[in-house]
Design brief:
The chain is mainly alpha-helical. The termini are far apart. The mean pLDDT is 88.
C-alpha cells in the first residue's frame, strides 16, 4: 500500500516524537534504526508492539502526541537536528520538504479563515 506525502510526513514526525518520548520515559527501550531499512511509522509501531507496561505506554504515547504537534511547527534545521539526535533517518532535503509542507498547511488554514 502506498502512502501519501502527507501520511509519510506525519509518520516521520510521529517517529521522532516517539523516539523523544521513549528517551525520556524508557531509556532502556530507546530504539535503534538502520537508515536503509527505515519505514515511516516503524519506530512507533515497534515500540508499542513490545511495550508490556500499560502505564508506561500511556505516558510515552501522551508525551509523543504532544511532541508531534510541536515538531510540526519547527523549521527544517531544527527538525533535522531532532531527527538526528533521536535516531530517525532524515536528510536536509526531506527536513525542508516536511517543514514546507506543514508551513503551507498552517498558511492554508489562515487563508481559509480570513
Amino acid at each position: 500500500m502506498d502512502i501519501t506525502k502527507n501520511q509519510q510526513f506525519h509518520l516521520i514526525l510521529a517517529d521522532i516524537a516517539m523516539a523523544m518520548a521513549i528517551s525520556v520515559m524508557d531509556a532502556a527501550g530507546r530504539p535503534s534504526v538502520e537508515a536503509a531499512g527505515y519505514q515511516p511509522g516503524s519506530i512507533r509501531d515497534n515500540w508499542l508492539r513490545q511495550a508490556a507496561d500499560k502505564a508506561l505506554t500511556q505516558r510515552v504515547t501522551a508525551l509523543a502526541n504532544a511532541g508531534l504537534a510541536s515538531l510540526s511547527n519547527l523549521p527544517a534545521s531544527e527538525l533535522l537536528d531532532k531527527a538526528e539526535r533521536f535516531g530517525v533517518p532524515m536528510d536536509t532535503a526531506l527536513a525542508q520538504e516536511i517543514a514546507v509542507h506543514f508551513k503551507e498547511k498552517r498558511e492554508a488554514v489562515l487563508t481559509y479563515n480570513r
